[in-house]
Model the fold of this input.
Amino acid sequence: MDFSFWDILRNLLVGLQWTLLLSLVAFVCGGIAGLLLLLARIAPLPAARALARGYIELFQGTPLLMQLFLVFFGIALLGVDVSPWLAAASALTLFTSAFLAEIWRGCVEAIPRGQWEAAQSLAMSRLELLRHVVLPQALRIAVAPTVGFSVQVVKGTAVTSIIGFSELTKTGGMLANATFEPFMVYGLVALGYFLLCYPLSLAAHRLERRLNVTA
Amino acid sequence: MAYQFDFVPVLDNADLLLQGALFTLGLTAVGTLLGVGLGIVGAVLRAWRIRPFDRLFGLYVELIRNTPFIVQLFFIFFGLPALGVRLSEWEAALLAMVINLGAYSTEIIRAGILAIPQGQLEAAAALALSRFESFRYVVLRPALAKVWPALSSQIIIVMLGSAVCSQIATEELSFAANFIQSRNFRAFETYLVTTLLYLVMAILIRQLLAWLGRRYVMGGR
Done:
C-alpha cells in the first residue's frame, strides 16, 4: 500500500487528536486529584502531610514510563481487562497530580504567614481561611507555572505510545515503518508536538512577566 | 483467585538490574557533563547576545523544550540515518540526552548569568582580572551557584527520562527490566523493583549534586 503525503498527514492528525484528548483528561483529572493532594500536603495532620509528601516524592522521583508499566500491569493483576487508554489516562493523572500539588504548594507557601494569622485572629475556620484568604491569592501566582506544566503533560503523553496507545508518537512509528520515511514522519510528529506546546510555553512566559510587572 | 506476589524471580536477576542501573548512571554522567557544557556555551551566547548564535540557540531551545524526549530520540535514531548519520543505540541515547539537557541548561544558566549585577563585572575589571578569570569567577561560578538547584532537578529529570531509551534497545535499566519480565512473566514485580531502583538513583544523584554544589560551586575555594 502506498502512502501519499496527505495520507501521512491525515493519519498523524488523527493521532494528534488522541494526544490532545489524553492531555486534557490527564490535566483536568490530575488537577482535581492535585488539589486534594495539596489539601493533604498542607493539612494540620502530620500523617496526611507525610503521606502526601511520600506520594509526591515517589511520582517525581521515578520515570513516567515505569509509572505507566506499574499501572498497566497493576490493574491487570486485579483481574480487570485494562485498555491502553485507561492505563495511560490513569498513570498520567497520577503523575500530573503529584507535580501540580507540589507547584501549588509553593504558591500557597508564598502567601505571607501574617495573612494566615490575620485570618485566624478573625476566627475564620481553616476552610474559610483557605477559601477566602489563601487560595484566591495563591491562584494568581499559580496560573503561570500551571500553564507551564501543561507543556510537560502534553509531552508526557508521548510515552504512552510504548504501552500501545495510538496517539501521535505511536501513529508516527507505524507510519515510519510503513512508508520507510522516518526522517519526514518523525519530523512531522515533532512539529505536531511543537504546535501544541509552543503556544502554551509562550502563554506561560507572558503570564509570568505580567505578574512580575504588577506585583 | 488472589494474585500471589513473587519477587524471587526478579531478585534472581539482580545482576542484570545492577548492570542496567550502572549503564543508566554512566549515560547520565557523560550526558550531564556534555549537556551542561553545551548549556554554558549556549547561555553565554544568549545572555551576551552574540549574533547570530544567540538567535540560533534560541530556536534550538524552543524546539527541544516543546517536543517530547522520546520523539527527539526516535528522530535521531530512526530519522538521521536518512541523512547518512547512523548511530549505535547508546550513541543515539547519549546524543539525545545531551541535546535535551543542553537546551534546558542553556535557559537555566542564562537566567543565572542575567542575574549578575553589572557592577560585579566592572569591579572585576577594576581589579585587573583577566577576561578568563573574570568569566570564571565573576560570571560563571556565581551564575551556577544561583541556579544550582534548578540545574540539579533538570539533570534528575533527564536521568529519569532516559528510561524510554529502552525503546531503541539501549541496554539501560528499563531495558534490563523489559528483558527480565519477558522471561519470568512477573511484570508487576519486575517493574516495581526497577521503579524503586530509579527512586534510589534519583535520591542519590540529588545528594551527590547537593554535595558537589556546596563543595565546589556555592562555598569558598
Q: What stands out?
A: Helices of chain A lie at 5-41, 46-60, 64-77, 84-109, 113-121, 126-156, 168-179, 182-214. Residues 5-214 of chain A form a domain with the MetI-like fold fold (CATH 1.10.3720.10).
